[in-house]
Amino acid sequence: MSYFFLDGYESMETYNPGEQPHDRPYIKLNANESSYPPSPAILEALTSVQINSLAYYEDPYNIKLREAIGEIYGFPKEQIFVGNGADEVIAFIMMSFFREGFPIASNDITYDFYRTYAQTFHLKYRKIPVKADFSTDVDALVECGCDVIIANPNNPTGKAISCADVERIVKKNEKRLVIVDEAYVDFGGETALSLVDKYPNIIVVRTYSKSRNMAGARIGFCVANQDIIDDMRNVKFCVSPFNLNTLSQVIGIAAIKDTKYYDECIKEVIETRSYFESELLRMGFEIVPTVTNFCFFKASGIIPAELLTERLKEHGILVRYFGFEPRTKDYVRVTIGRRAEMEIVVRNMKAIIEEYQAEKVSNARRAAS
Amino acid sequence: MSYFFLDGYESMETYNPGEQPHDRPYIKLNANESSYPPSPAILEALTSVQINSLAYYEDPYNIKLREAIGEIYGFPKEQIFVGNGADEVIAFIMMSFFREGFPIASNDITYDFYRTYAQTFHLKYRKIPVKADFSTDVDALVECGCDVIIANPNNPTGKAISCADVERIVKKNEKRLVIVDEAYVDFGGETALSLVDKYPNIIVVRTYSKSRNMAGARIGFCVANQDIIDDMRNVKFCVSPFNLNTLSQVIGIAAIKDTKYYDECIKEVIETRSYFESELLRMGFEIVPTVTNFCFFKASGIIPAELLTERLKEHGILVRYFGFEPRTKDYVRVTIGRRAEMEIVVRNMKAIIEEYQAEKVSNARRAAS
Measured between CB atoms, does B174 come within 8 Å of chain A? Predict the structure, then answer.
């Protein structure tokens, strides 16, 4: 730590992204990325003309990209803000509207980035405990009386609340903002976009990282009423005016238009999810029903969750373990890849469990002898 | 403005980037961009493999890009931080090290982004007046006793201070950080990179936007001692872990290695600058000697600066006018493009001046009659 680092940052706990080891090839199912490539349309969009135009600054208003997104979702560009990933969109929301010392409520088990961001800017982060089945305590959020940020569907649990429940939170807290991060909504959640024109205090955040197969492109956006978007643009123009580079804007436009391609990818993910869930059940695991591109299931009982995670890694498969929290330490989160990948996962899980049970038996024998 | 916008932001003056009108084709010399395309190596680097890899998150540690940059400048990757444009790098510096209420000193005439950023985060921004010839008041910065951020060479003036002068500021303010933004240094300034291993309190910021012909790619970086870089990475991991997308990292690596190409572009810009300066002198303008890729010259006396800017735009040429400040309102800033572009600029300036003088004569005659 340098002499100059701001007081209060010493104990900062940074966000921990899913690991990206390169010691060997892995089936990567630890960061809820898509195993499908982006739309082929983005390859066509990247012409040499556009690449040479990199010499000039891109449009800082992102007009064409916002128009393209708005057209798909039925909003004028004035209600769309785009950022360098949904993380940056959320950062601009927090920067624009959240005050130091004033609390933001969120599920206590959720995407950890909200907490790290809040902590960095000295915002009070109020954790509302999820229920025993990991579902969101909607009543507690309705009554919390402060700004709210929720991932819906939630990560890593895969649980979602209905649009009617989101509306209850939004309606009860007219003077407080409600941020709904819908990163995973396309895989079976219910969007709250219909509330945007009904309430001035809701912001719906979306990303290209999941259902658009473009985590490495860093494109996110949000939809809200125009005043909110204007405020965010003003803050952006003070902090990072040119936040989305030329190539991101070009491929962002090409990708968002290719609805057909993405609908097919999503359909396949949902089918593969059913296959994987039924295999998990067949192996005896307790699963948390999911409407996302990942499964969160209780491993312990059959095999300790951490051990399963480690052994899968030894077998070339990366999944995610959340051992820091007592209520999730028995669970494993596995992203839904392609069918062929999930078949390999199932095969390896069966082998790992068999091996583990044989070890248990032999250990027990050794102890008895 | 929404009900939710933070108090104190109402009067926020946002950064004003150079305009990008699209009503007709323009020779764009208003944002100090390069008129040369990026290295052809970046086109080769953008293979379909890399584009398909967009489905996965990129390396949030930017290891390969930091290694490539470090190799060119003679630093280990541990001393390099990369960001989504130098603006974001500066934003992370301010976020990591600058305290609310604690003053940052800068030249009063300089890149306006420092002020807008400081204002957004309630930092005290102390403007140190430049001298009558627009040169930096080094003594005042040495004695200021607070954090310092300078563009060196400075923008829009084109004036630079020596590395020895930077060292005086750094040495006298051991407990304060000195940020040196060297966006334009490759066109003839003296870099302060040699001070980085000598002092723990200097950060040198660089960009791909100017001498690397890639303003639209949004790649910037800074070089400092490892503690500083570690602190910035920790803040980044709380605020925007995946700040540089896959394609930016790929083209950033390809571009930084092609030194030969960029050296040739820089050489041509410097030659064209000599041509343009001598033409300005021939037209009777008073020029501020420059070591950058732009010329800042006094138009008024021959033709009002604002009028010259407007008429050039009518002739399809965009240049920059800074009328909001009494000391710059008689000046115009023109980016140095390709030789052919600057010949068109010269031709049009001569025609505009001739026309203006004819108007003056005819107005005088009309007034006299």
Answer: no
